[in-house]
Amino acid sequence: MEPFSKTIGHKTARQVFLRMIENNQLPHAILFVGPKHVGKTHLVTELIQHLFHTIRHPSLISDVSLLAREVDPKTGKKKFAISVKQVRALVERLSMTPMEGNWKIAFIQEADRLSIGAANALLKTLEEPKGNALIILRAPSVESVLQTIASRCQIFRLSPVAKSEIIPALQKRGLSKTEADEISERSFGCPGIAIRYIQDSEMRARKETAIAQVETLMNASLPEQFRLVFDLIPKTEIDKSIALSHLLDDWSEVLRANLLKTVAEKQTATVNKTARVLNCIQTVRSAISHNINPHLSLEHIFLSTHV
């Protein structure tokens, strides 16, 4: 199978990787950054598969280690950060002799969630990798990763993919031109969202709801917005903080896509308003762990649209 044949878009990155591999110039540490669902994980998966000459998922390859936050057995929720203990175990696995190829690969799926201790434990390996050790990191942005880590990686920024690339990929999966065009428009340049639109009806309904909510967020009057507060997070909701977090994730995704579009169209007033609301959402998101009132938080976000 042709390398990276399943990746939608990111042609430049794919070509660069193929050239690096052909010339034996693959860096020892790579940081992929870009919006959620833009294709970071998919590109990493195909890169690993190409290096091991297999179609198996990386989780099934003995010389590949996947690292993300652990689940707290007491709460059943993911811990806040990747621990130093996890990274030390990872570094030890990387130092071992490969079992089925020439590579030992670590894929740190949440590089923005490395604790300070975990990051420090990783630094020496990033500076002095042993053998054919390859460390791949994934994060939403360079700024979200500790500077000491990011500076030791070759950074690949994955931008939203053009509709002209997403549409034919969806048509190959059996959609009509009209259906592919509609889903491409609502995927905001993120192939992962487009594919999930096809496969997950629940997710599709959620994204469509988020688009409608953002329309209200950006254009409705303040009284209309305030009337929606208890509809967005009902009083009967058991875990309001989680509901708020999911809501902010959906809104942020739609708003970032809208921001890119309005920047391209040079709609300065809309760009400034969207950026202001995104900053407000980020402030609220940072405060969620401090048990803020979800309903007051939504009102705060609504107010930011009328400054």
Please name the fourth-level CATH homologous superfamily of the largest domain: P-loop containing nucleotide triphosphate hydrolases
Structural class: alpha/beta
The strand count comes to 5
Proportion of β residues?
5-15%
Helix content: 40-55%
Element string (H = helix, E = strand): HEHEHEHEHEHHHHHHHH
Distance between the termini: 54 Å
What is the name of the CATH class of the largest domain? Alpha Beta
Largest sheet: 5 strands, parallel
Describe the fold and architecture.
There is one protein chain. This protein has 3 domains: 11-157, Rossmann fold; 162-199; 210-304. Helices cover 54% and strands 8% of the residues. The protein contains 13 helices and 5 strands. Strands 2-3-4-1-5 form a 5-stranded parallel β-sheet, with helices on both faces. Helix 6 crosses helix 7 (177-186), helix 9 (201-219) packs across helix 11 (240-264) and helix 10 (222-232) runs antiparallel to helix 13 (294-304). The relative contact order is 0.11.
Quick overview:
The chain has helices at 11-22, 40-52, 84-94, 116-127, 147-150, 163-171, 177-186, 191-199, 201-219, 222-232, 240-264, 268-287, 294-304; strands spanning 29-33, 64-67, 104-108, 133-139, 154-157. The chain is α/β, with parallel strands linked by helices.
List the helices and strands and how they pair.
Elements: H1 11-22, E1 29-33, H2 40-52, E2 64-67, H3 84-94, E3 104-108, H4 116-127, E4 133-139, H5 147-150, E5 154-157, H6 163-171, H7 177-186, H8 191-199, H9 201-219, H10 222-232, H11 240-264, H12 268-287, H13 294-304
Parallel strand pairs: 1-4, 1-5, 2-3, 3-4
Helix pairs in contact: 3-4, 6-7, 9-11, 10-13, 11-12, 12-13
